[in-house]
Write a structure and sequence with these properties.
With 223 residues, the chain is α+β, with helices and mostly antiparallel strands. It is built from 2 helices and 13 strands, in the order αβββββββββββαββ. A 7-stranded mixed beta sheet has the order 2-5-12-7-8-10-9.
């Protein structure tokens, strides 16, 4: 191939690669389901449920970034959003978080220690009754090396899964991606194709302490 033809070939190849990247980006954009647009200071569709007092949820801004800040003072309330997600299409849950004021080491498997500086959980309804649900709680544990997962101290229908521990530095953002479909099957032994809601929570009512954390955007993705 002469030099002129080689140049034409290279230009066409570059163009094809660029168009291919654009196509991939457009395809990826179609398979992302936004749940929490906290960088856009948007809480539409989110509601608060109190278990003991009220955790203080508010938007804050740092380095041109908006995020949701939450602090609990002997309190426990969750923000939740009812949303149907097809796990066959978008099984991966993605989010960013950081602990701003960590809890001391607690025995999280008993009721007195069932507090978490940060948690994101996913809910599935298993029937018409409100108590017939299963939940996966992805937590920032106050322990150094907790078990892989365990039932919640108040109900076996919720499983606690530690993604971060006290060994992870506080006041540093961490980014998570978990396969919710796989986690439901691994922990409950049931194939799950749809979820019914997502919640976040910062709580310290059982220990009577103070803790705080921040949350970035939350979304589901295909991969």
């Amino acid at each position: 191939m002469n030099t002129k033809l080689q140049k034409i070939f290279n230009v066409k190849m570059c163009a094809s690669l660029v168009l291919g990247c654009i196509a991939v980006s457009l395809h990826s954009a179609k398979v992302i389901v936004n749940v929490g647009d906290f960088s856009g200071k948007d809480l539409s569709g989110w509601n608060e449920k109190s278990f003991s007092g009220a955790t203080d949820y508010r938007f804050e801004r740092q380095a041109e970034l908006n995020y949701l800040y939450a602090s609990a003072d002997k309190s426990a309330s969750a923000l939740y959003k009812k949303i149907k997600i097809d796990l066959r299409k978008t099984p991966y849950l993605n989010w960013s978080w950081r602990v701003d004021k960590p809890l001391p080491e607690l025995n999280e498997q008993v009721k007195e220690g069932d507090d978490y500086s940060a948690r994101v959980y996913v809910i599935v309804k298993r029937g018409l009754a409100p108590w017939r649900t299963n939940a996966l709680n992805y937590i920032w544990s106050s322990n150094k090396a907790p078990e892989q997962s365990w039932p919640n101290a108040f109900t076996e229908k919720a499983i606690m899964i530690p993604l971060r521990t006290r060994l992870d530095a506080s006041q540093e953002w961490r980014h998570e991606k978990v396969n919710v479909r796989t986690d439901f099957e691994d922990n409950f032994g049931v194939k799950t194709e749809m979820i019914d809601g997502v919640a976040i929570m910062v709580d310290s009512d059982n220990s009577g302490l103070v803790t705080a954390a921040s949350f970035g955007d939350i979304y589901f993705s295909a991969n």
